[in-house]
Every structure is written in C-alpha cells, then in structure tokens.
Amino acid sequence: MQRQELARYSRQLILPHFGSQAQLELKHARVLVIGAGGIGCPAVQYLASAGVGWITVMDADAVETSNLSRQVLHTDERVGTNKAASIAAAITLLQPHVHVEAVACALRADNAFMYAQRHDVILDCTDNVMTRYLISDAGVLAGKPVVSGAAQGYEGQLMVLHRPLADGRRGPCYRCLFPEAPRPEHTQSCDDGGVLGCVTGIVGTWQALETIKLLTGLGDTTPNLLFFTPMDTQAVRCVRVRPRQTRTCRACGDADQVPNKIVHLPDEDYVSFCASAVAPIHVPSIDVNHVQGTDALIVDVRPSHEFAITSLPHSLHIDWDSMRRDLPRARARITEAAQGRPIYVVCRRGNDSRAAVQQLALPNCFNVTGGLRAYAEYDTSFPMY
C-alpha cells in the first residue's frame, strides 16, 4: 500500500483482526452494486471509503429531483444524469484510490451472469421483485454471495444470500426463502409507498458492512435476516432463516434432486414467474389532457396525507382504503356529488384509481391514466411530489 493509503485507512488498520491483510483484500476486491438509489448510494460511499479497489455500479435510470432527499451522492447539478455515472463522479472526488465503473443499463437475464462472475460480491440495492430473483439466480450460477437490502416506509431489512458457510457449504438463496413470488398488487416500490431517507442510509451502510465482512472473512457466517423497525421499541431484530433447500430450490438445489434446475438465465421467464404478465385491469380511461378545465367530478383516492400535499381543484377525496371497506357508501357519495356528470378517478400514478374504477362499477366513470404524475407533466404549474 502507498503511504497515502496507510494514512487514509489508519483507523481501521489498527482494529483487532483487521490489519494490513484485510485492507489488501479490500483493495484487490471487485464488488458489483446493482441499483444506484437510496440504498446503493451509501453502500458505494462506504465501500469506496473503506478501500474496496473496484466497484461496478449498474443503473439505467437518471437522477430526478425527488431522489435527492435520500440518494445522497447525487446533486442538483447532476439531475438528468445517469445514476451510475453520477455516483462514479461523486466517488472520484471522495476517494482517489479506488475505481468505480459506471454501467448505464439495467441488469437483464442476458447479461446478469457475465457481470456476476466478474465480481467477488454482489449487492442488490433494487426495489424490484423480478430483479431480486434474477440477481440471486446469477449469484448462485456464478458462485458469488449476494448482499440484499430493502427499504420501505419506515422499515428496512438485509440478508446475505448464497453465503459461504464455515463448513464449506452455502447458505440459502432468494428462491430458498421465497419459492413463490408475490403478486404485483402485494408489492410496492419506494416510488409508490414512500420511504424515509435515513432508513435507506442505514440499510445501505449495513450492506457495506456485510460486504466488508465477506471480503475479509470477519464475523459470524450464520444465515440471518436483519429487520430495522425504528418506530418499534425493538428497533433491530435478527431472525434466523431457513437453510438452503437442496431438494426443491430451482436455483441452488442439488441437480439430482431438482429436475428443472436453472442452468441458463436467458431461458427463464422472470416476468411470468413474478406475475407481472398477469393481464392488466381494463377499465374505461381518459388521458390527462381531458382533466384541465373539465366539468366532471374528480374523485381523488390517494391517502389523506398525500391529498393534503396537493390536489386538483374541487376534488372529492375518498381514500382507496376507505372506499374498499365500504363500497356502497362510496358509490352513494360519488353518485350524489356527480349529479349526472362524468366521474374522473385519480391517484398519484394511476394504479389505485384504476382498481377503484373497476370496483365502483359506476356508469360514466373513468380512470385518469398515469395519475397526477402524468398530469404534472401536462400542466407544469401543478406541484408534484
């Protein structure tokens, strides 16, 4: 190591069981970080600061203003820039002794194995169920552990998949723990459900710590699932997970036990497996350009705290949860307020409103396609969050 590196890493070098050997292992390591958002930013920042020599960051998205409260390596000046490139630019200023490769594309079935096999550890910093299965499967095929983090609302969780164990075996993969994918209506992204920036910061920092442990051989190897629930009296919980499912798991099970074992990622239909190919709900819909200046009754089905942020003028607010609990009452309120006018149902992104139109089953009732996010693009004076 160079003199400047010794000075930079001095506080971790003097730690018991760390020393120069662990630092050299970090320097020669290659880490793949998939997702350059709220979790990926702190993970990359702490990995780079600790001296991980090569970090590849993959993300196809561009930086948006709404990202900045939690995606702490991005800046106002880099809004519109690819997120992976933005992180690489930030780390260049932060840490001159490591290399960050920016890959401005999404992880896909046709490139996942290639990227996985080039690295020592993979970090799943995404909020997409389909991508989680793909990352885990790629890690299994390439023989690489996956540090998987998730954050939603006020809560976070972390687990290490396909972890090398003390006896030479491997811990469970994502399919071992979740053999059946949740249906799309049972999942939410941060964009839909919201998240507190501090939570993503904690989860990303946890991921960096677990990655350093894997690269240096420090710490316990017991497969666990960590939960972070700061609004509870017990803010951190550690749950032991089920072992590797050698007889049933299509990803990491034994070949002589599992007849349909995954051997080639492009042959897998991840879309159908994750139920994203379920036929969409078809309901009467209108484009956002019909909303401005309309005489129709606008029904806003967002939660109350979102309705308080901003709303269209003269909207009738009935949140979707209340509507589902008492559909007859909701129908009566809407019918009375409409007085024969068309009914336009709106939410933030057009998902809950589509379901509401289907459940209401009222005549002359339409979903506003794309919701208020789409309306804000049409009417740029409308404040959007």
Automatic annotation (TrEMBL):
<keyword id="KW-0547">Nucleotide-binding</keyword>
<dbReference type="InterPro" id="IPR036873">
    <property type="entry name" value="Rhodanese-like_dom_sf"/>
</dbReference>
<keyword id="KW-0808">Transferase</keyword>
<feature type="domain" description="Rhodanese">
    <location>
        <begin position="292"/>
        <end position="383"/>
    </location>
</feature>
<dbReference type="InterPro" id="IPR000594">
    <property type="entry name" value="ThiF_NAD_FAD-bd"/>
</dbReference>
<keyword id="KW-0819">tRNA processing</keyword>
<dbReference type="InterPro" id="IPR001763">
    <property type="entry name" value="Rhodanese-like_dom"/>
</dbReference>
<dbReference type="Pfam" id="PF00899">
    <property type="entry name" value="ThiF"/>
</dbReference>
<dbReference type="GO" id="GO:0005524">
    <property type="term" value="F:ATP binding"/>
</dbReference>
<dbReference type="GO" id="GO:0016779">
    <property type="term" value="F:nucleotidyltransferase activity"/>
</dbReference>
<dbReference type="GO" id="GO:0042292">
    <property type="term" value="F:URM1 activating enzyme activity"/>
</dbReference>
<dbReference type="InterPro" id="IPR045886">
    <property type="entry name" value="ThiF/MoeB/HesA"/>
</dbReference>
<protein>
    <submittedName>
        <fullName>Similar to S.cerevisiae protein UBA4 (E1-like protein that activates Urm1p before urmylation)</fullName>
    </submittedName>
</protein>
<dbReference type="GO" id="GO:0002143">
    <property type="term" value="P:tRNA wobble position uridine thiolation"/>
</dbReference>
<keyword id="KW-0833">Ubl conjugation pathway</keyword>
<dbReference type="InterPro" id="IPR035985">
    <property type="entry name" value="Ubiquitin-activating_enz"/>
</dbReference>
<keyword id="KW-0067">ATP-binding</keyword>
<dbReference type="GO" id="GO:0004792">
    <property type="term" value="F:thiosulfate-cyanide sulfurtransferase activity"/>
</dbReference>
<dbReference type="Pfam" id="PF00581">
    <property type="entry name" value="Rhodanese"/>
</dbReference>
<dbReference type="GO" id="GO:0005829">
    <property type="term" value="C:cytosol"/>
</dbReference>
<keyword id="KW-0548">Nucleotidyltransferase</keyword>
<dbReference type="GO" id="GO:0032447">
    <property type="term" value="P:protein urmylation"/>
</dbReference>
